[in-house]
Write a structure and sequence with these properties.
The protein has about 200 residues and is of the alpha/beta class. It contains eight helices and five strands. The chain has two domains: about 30-100 and about 140-195, Beta-carbonic Anhydrase, Chain A (3-Layer(aba) Sandwich); about 105-140, no CATH class. Helix content is about 40%, strand content about 15%. It has a five-stranded mixed beta sheet with strand order 2-1-3-4-5, with helices on both faces.
């Protein structure tokens, strides 16, 4: 049985047995927060439990490395939608230790693409279209610096409301311990004092 068949079989029983009832909520986050975090499998249940979040409490956006790779990409658009249209009034960027993106070697990944059938012509055409494929695929070395970079991109985005706190944290993927890197409330207070 394929994973798709297994999922669909389970889903049919899930719906028929009304197992969805405990999860019914609205599209608006009850705690009015949006979280950008990593797609790491260890965080699927651990992150919400470690933050005391239940279904419906937060908008959760996931990307490799909890990165805002481009200020006008899909991740930033999702954050703006959460803030302007879905009533989120705080943003949390949460990276984690032992992140796979900290070890991504773009050259190795391009070799893996070739092994799975992506032609050199396709790779070259991407390069000639103005995309630096190596840079686009590159990971990061320091999770704290990466989180702070994403926080900075969000805080300074021209369309992001300047009075909305953006926090940066790093989680231990084994214990769920959160380490605060930057408190968005303190940042806004300091900025207000210096303006």
């Amino acid at each position: 049985m394929t994973s798709l068949e297994e999922i669909l079989r389970f889903n049919k029983e899930f719906v028929e047995n009304k197992q969805y009832l405990p999860y019914i909520t609205s599209k608006y986050p009850d705690k009015k927060i949006v979280i950008l975090t990593c797609m790491d499998t260890r965080l699927i249940e651990l992150l919400p439990k470690a933050m005391n979040l239940r279904n419906g409490d937060a908008k959760i956006i996931k990307s490799a490395g909890a990165m805002v790779a481009h200020p006008f990409g899909g991740i930033m658009r999702s954050i703006l939608v959460a803030v302007y249209e879905l009533q989120a009034d705080e943003v949390y960027v949460i990276g984690h230790h032992d992140c796979g993106m900290s070890k991504v070697d773009p050259f190795v990944m391009i070799d893996h693409m070739r092994e799975r059938g992506i032609s050199d012509e396709m790779i070259k055409s991407i390069k000639y279209s103005g995309i630096d494929l190596v840079e686009w695929l590159r990971g990061f070395g320091d999770v704290e610096k990466n989180v702070l970079k994403s926080v900075d991109i969000i805080r300074n985005h021209p369309l992001f409301p300047k009075n909305t706190p953006v926090h940066g944290l790093v989680m231990d993927p084994e214990t769920g311990k959160l380490d605060l890197l930057t408190n968005g409330h303190e940042y806004l207070e300091l900025r207000h004092q210096h303006s």
